[in-house]
């Protein structure tokens, strides 16, 4: 069975536009494809549209064929992704998979899968009807248009993978006609091989510094934490060396003014390298106001790092499922500070090994790949 994933993926170093184009840092679809190749008879390939790229580019990445499709980087949302969907769908048909697996509604991925005319499904992530409810966009904006195309495409969809109960329940309320399948993301098994030795009083934040990730809550909390632990350090991964938003500029300035050289901004680095750094931390701090799954927490648990997360998100769902985490209320910087102080004062984390074991047992590559295979076979059997 040939499976084509329409998704995001970081550019490889030999891509002609490497370093020139900023792209999504996540590699969870590649992790899934690697699991599918290793654990089943499936033949996965990835199709990644790159707006602004100078040329198409194909290569095998860790043994998986990946096709980077160049596209113009203008008037994309203004045209409701019509030309993107047409372009990607044409390449899908040329690659001739048995089934198309679209990842996300924040771009043309689902629209292209539908336009291809081939059997397809969606993994839901970054749902804008949830994001925009939290942070309402301007009346005419890319975010508003994406929500419109998302609702349009989901209205025509049938099979959708929800990576968490949080996502599944939201989709079920908005789109009751969907057939929802609860399959979480898997991970790179190399993350289970790192040492569990920790550096003292080191915190990590992973994610693009935007309002819904709650970095401002962490800034407020650290004002209290520093009164007890004046030597606390913070490493941030996922920031931009050239911030594009006032929010990121303000957060980085506030943290630098407060912590000086005790805060370090790493930017976007390869996933395994980031996991090696995360393994050194006392705790991952993820005070998100909204989170669909939380790959950063799963990676944290795999490298033995305690997670401090917020209620009402898939992060909290996964802490309760796997352990080795603390859940704090939403919009409660004081509660976040108390949780961080408690964690920094610990000498032991008794759930460390058990949480890692649970992650491998419940969402390991073999488990997730076989769940996908069964779903693909069901969709193909339906015609």
CATH class of the largest domain: Alpha Beta
Number of strands: 14
The CATH architecture of the largest domain can be named as 3-Layer(aba) Sandwich
Percent helix, as a range, is 40-55%
Structural class given helices, strands, pairing? alpha/beta
Q: Indicate the radius of gyration in whole angstroms.
A: 21 Å
Q: What are the segments in which pLDDT stays under 50 over at least 5 consecutive residues?
A: none
* Strand order, sheet with most strands: 3-4-2-1-5-6-7-8
CATH topology assignment of the largest domain: Rossmann fold
Our estimate of the beta-strand percent is 15-25%
Number of domains: 2
* Terminal Cα span: 15 Å
Number of helices: 14
Major sheet summary line: 8 strands, mixed
Return the string of H and E elements: EHEEEHEHEHHEHEEHEHEHEHEHEHHH
Overall spatial form: globular
> Mean of the pLDDT scores?
95
**What would you give as the CATH superfamily of the largest domain?**
Glycogen Phosphorylase B
Structural commentary:
It is a single chain. It is built from 14 helices and 14 strands. It is globular, with a radius of gyration of 21 Å. It has two domains: 2-186 and 364-382, Glycogen Phosphorylase B (Rossmann fold, 3-Layer(aba) Sandwich); 190-362, Glycogen Phosphorylase B (Rossmann fold, 3-Layer(aba) Sandwich). It has helices at 28-39, 82-95, 109-116, 128-134, 142-156, 165-174, 215-228, 246-259, 271-278, 295-302, 314-322, 333-344, 352-363, 365-382; strands spanning 2-6, 43-51, 57-61, 64-71, 99-103, 120-124, 159-162, 179-182, 202-206, 233-237, 263-267, 283-286, 306-310, 325-328. With 383 residues, it is α/β, with parallel strands linked by helices.
């Amino acid at each position: 069975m040939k499976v084509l994933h329409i998704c995001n993926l970081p550019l490889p170093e030999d891509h002609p536009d490497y370093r020139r184009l900023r792209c999504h840092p996540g590699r969870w679809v590649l992790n899934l494809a690697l699991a599918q190749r290793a654990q089943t008879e499936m033949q996965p390939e990835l199709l990644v549209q790159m707006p602004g790229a100078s040329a198409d580019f194909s290569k095998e990445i860790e043994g998986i064929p990946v096709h980077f499709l160049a596209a113009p980087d203008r008037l994309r949302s203004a045209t409701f992704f019509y030309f993107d969907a047409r372009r990607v769908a044409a390449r899908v048909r040329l690659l001739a998979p048995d089934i198309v697996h679209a990842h996300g509604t924040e771009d043309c991925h689902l629209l292209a899968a539908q336009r291809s005319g081939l059997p397809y499904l969606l993994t839901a992530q970054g749902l804008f009807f949830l994001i925009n409810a939290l942070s309402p966009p301007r009346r005419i904006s890319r975010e508003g248009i994406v929500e419109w195309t998302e609702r349009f495409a989901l209205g025509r969809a049938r099979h959708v993978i929800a990576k968490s109960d949080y996502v599944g329940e939201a989709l079920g309320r908005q789109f009751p006609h969907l057939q929802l399948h609860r399959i979480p993301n898997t991970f790179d098994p190399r993350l289970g091989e790192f040492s569990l030795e920790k550096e003292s009083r080191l915190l990590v934040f992973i994610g693009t510094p935007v309002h819904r990730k709650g970095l401002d809550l962490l800034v407020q909390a650290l004002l209290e934490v520093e009164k007890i632990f004046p030597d606390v350090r913070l490493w941030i991964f996922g920031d931009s060396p050239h911030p594009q938003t006032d929010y990121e500029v303000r957060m980085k300035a506030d943290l630098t003014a407060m912590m000086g050289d005790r805060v370090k901004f790493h930017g976007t680095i390869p996933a395994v390298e980031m996991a090696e750094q995360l393994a050194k931390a006392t705790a991952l701090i993820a005070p998100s106001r909204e989170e669909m799954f939380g790959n950063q927490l799963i990676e944290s648990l795999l490298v033995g790092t305690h997670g401090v997360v917020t209620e009402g998100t898939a992060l909290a769902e996964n802490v309760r499922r796997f352990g080795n985490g603390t859940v704090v209320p939403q919009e409660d910087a004081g509660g976040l500070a108390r949780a961080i102080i408690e964690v920094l004062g610990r000498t032991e984390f008794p759930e460390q090994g058990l949480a890692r074991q649970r992650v491998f047992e419940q969402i390991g590559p073999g488990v997730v790949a076989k769940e996908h295979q069964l779903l693909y076979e069901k969709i193909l059997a339906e015609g």
